[in-house]
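Notebook entry, structure prediction.
Reason for the run: the old model in the group folder had no record of what sequence produced it. Starting over properly, with the input documented here first.
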Amino acid sequence: MRHFAFSAALAALFLLAPAAFADDAATQNVHIAVDEEAGTAVVNIRGEHFTTLHFGEDARTPILWPVNAEGGVGVTRNWPMGEDEPESRDHPHHRSLWTSFGDVNGSDSWHRTPITVERIDAGSGDEFGWIRLETVWRDRGGEPIVNETRIYHFHDSEPSARVIDQETTFHAVHGDVTFSENKEGFFALRIRPDIQGNRAGTLTNAAGEKGERAVYGTPGPWMDYSGEIEGVGVRGIAIFSHPENLRLPAWHVRDYGLMGCNFFAMQQVAGLEDSGNHTVPEGEDFTLRARFFVHSGTAEEADIAARFAEYAGPAAAAE
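New structure, fully documented this time:
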């Protein structure tokens, strides 16, 4: 199995020199094809469709859908973009894999306010492909609240262990930006319905606890959602929170399929005394990072704890 650690220097190198990825891109191990008119960026790994980024106006916020595990089966919910079996039609704003938050300067991109993509750049490569988005988070009247630079890295890997790294940097160019105590957010996904926790799926946290009752709200570095898909086997997806993030996230997770990695719901989700409010002063930046690890097998079989330690690095993992 190949393993991948976050490398800011490596990311910066290729973002500054995208031409290095452009040569003969169709033959690269990780191939990304952007169609700005359709509002999509298709990610193939060694000729297999892994995921598609949807960033057009009809998306309201950028989403990754589908997110395919080994065998070409999606691990996230299809609805409302497509159909699911068994049917799943609650919470239409839970769209596969996305990033949003319930209260940024009083506006709620989790449910209604838009995150608009102003620019997209992408590159293919043998080690990884990348997509860079320049977005604006807006209020209900369409006025800008905060600018965001979002970078995805899609690593070359075997189908049983697909890796997406996301780095999100907010730029407070329109005034102070406050992320207020709120349970709705931040890095989020909705698992496919047949492996929800109230069906064949299991939530597992970094302490080895299982099930919504045990893991809801627990601050910790990672969470996994996995289960048996009929005729396929066990598939799942974990979210890793980078050790340099603001704080350990509180996990807003539900048996009906939601998994949210939330850095601001310290009272509403974690049940702590202190508020999770965080203000970015005008002119400053604020960065959060996560890894999405799509795997075959249970959390134990996929050795999620070891995969997180590799992502976090030896020093952080030992703390």
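Summary: The longest strand covers residues 144-155.
The old model has been moved to the deprecated folder.
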